[in-house]
Design goal:
The chain is an alpha/beta fold. Helices cover 40% and strands 16% of the residues. The chain has a domain at 3-22 and 89-249 and 321-397: Alpha/Beta hydrolase fold, catalytic domain (Rossmann fold), CATH 3.40.50. α8 (256-263) crosses α9 (265-274), α9 packs across α10 (276-289) and α10 (276-289) crosses α11 (297-309). This is Epoxide hydrolase N-terminal domain-containing protein.
Length: 400
Amino acid sequence: MAFNGFGNLPNGVSGSIGPWKINIPQQDLDKLATLIKLAPLAPPTFENSLPGQNRPLGLPRNWLSEAKTSWETEFDWRKHEERINTFPHFRASIQDTLGDFDIHFVALFSKRSDAIPILFLHGWPGSFLEFLPLLDILRSQYTAEDLPYHLVVPSLPGYAFSSKPSLDKDFRADDAARIFDSLMSLLGFESYAVQGGDVGGRVARIIASQYPNCKAVHLNTHPMASPAESAVQSSIEDVEKAGLERHNFFLHNGTGYALEHATRPSTIGFVLASSPLALLAWIGEKFMDWTDEDPSLDTILESVTLYWLTGCASSNLWSYRQFYGPNADSHGSKKWYINIPFGYAWFPKEINPLPKAWIETTGNLVFFRRHEKGGHFAAMEQPHELLADLEEFLKINWSS
């Protein structure tokens, strides 16, 4: 597939990077179909039978029952696979201090000599799929000859088609940052920008603070933080107070999953890797609770199916014990203060929509835009808005 020139690697790229294509074995799809069909649904309880759509105690049983039926009878992975493969995919072999990693990534490459390389980083329970709407916008607006950017969207280690971390060494966000800086170097980029959210936002923050080839960073989620001394109550606007209420609700009612990932990743990993229905419940809840509007069921099933077919439900929990639970690193640690140009997109239904005055204490915040709609999965929910922010930020602040 020619990909209209977007799939041509930059000149001089390392031979350790080559094109790739998704092709899930049919036997894996058949096995998944059988497991979905045989998966038992928990009986009705007070907790899973509450009326309304607020989901105060978790997923409603009727939603999971309907989703199970749709997954079993209507969802077609091959149609999704065909669409996903309309984007250029690659695998890069990276030799790292923690071993050799094969990193999967989707990319649109430009033929312009002044194109800005941008690294996009996803989080949990997301994947590279989040950024495909944004890439779709750009490939429809530009040709490979005039695209202003090189767009690189990898799967984090332990996610989807990238290598899983070693069995005998702990893996941290710092390690992911080092691997992705190496990836950009292998692609021949001596300078680049990075954009990210959730786990990808933490990795992006580390890259921005520790790797000199990164010249600008744009985030759409922020580390959980305490009020800055300079952020007096009078400096917080009403819309930010509503954001703080959402943030506080999440802290007290929505972080159980993160503590489980952080303190008992082995146990919850067995659960999620043992039943596709369990995985759907665990992830589906987040896709609905963390967004402004519930995504389509097809979108949720695509992401959950990707997790299941790539066996990553138990291998992508590594970041949580670094940032949650006992002896956790501070999300907003001063060692990761951002000195390079720092841009931020604020969405009201983010899980921790913190005030601007708090965010600007963690870096050289030179661009900030508050949006009226959107949530945690910004690239999926509001791709036009996120792209417009990023383009305006880089137009003013990019200097290679």
